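pasting for ref
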Amino acid sequence: MKLFKSATSFLFILATTVLFSTAFGWNPFIVGIVLTLASFIPTPSGVAAINIARINSAARQVGYSNYEGDQRGPKYVGFNDPLVDLGNKAQDFSQEMATGRVFAITIANGSADQQKVYFVTPNPSFIPTDATRVIRDGAIPTGAAIATLIGSGSPDTIGSWLAFMQNNPSRSVGFQVSSTSAAQMGVIMNIVPRSPYSNLQNQLIPLGAFRNEYAFNDKILTLKQAIQFDNQTEISVDIPAGATTTFTFYMGAILNTAKALNDKSMIALSNVSQ
């Protein structure tokens, strides 16, 4: 049990005595005695626990942290976070477009049928729906005798792009779809987070929903839709028959542990040398 005998308790009693005496005209001597005696009543441990829980909950909501050196403040925006790689131009998540990271993937479907392809990292933490249809450089197997589904990347290979995101989850702030077929704008992109513990909610992006009446080119579309690429997410989209389609992703923040270690070591070495 805890007794209220601190200086804070004394000041509280004094202030309350003055308040009640002034507001209600009560005898300050009597009010002071009653409050003093009340301060010696033990506080139930359960009440104390509830109060502490409420304080901790409020602290979490405003972003306070017990970790030393956490300078993020009450409203996290990504500024100065060593784990978040925003490039040299962007300062926080509101400036992700300034990273200047652009990657284009082109899929050419020479078959007479619509073909589904998957965006999956090389060693995902799940079993892909169809591992043979994962995008790659060169021929993507379709079961046909002749290679009719071809992939390519720019400015690097598709393989290097997917491999990088295997251990460095990356955000696409938006993307552009351009195709030789207007039918491409009528397909739906399916984003599925995968977990062995439950079936997580997927996200459907109907490309045509982002078109408006002012778009005169029916074979190109820009979507201000963020997508996260990582080894726990499977993304699929259909490529219409005979279409060559390019997906241009405007990449933003990267969860980069290598950068974090480098930054921390540079700071530590500068402090040691002082």
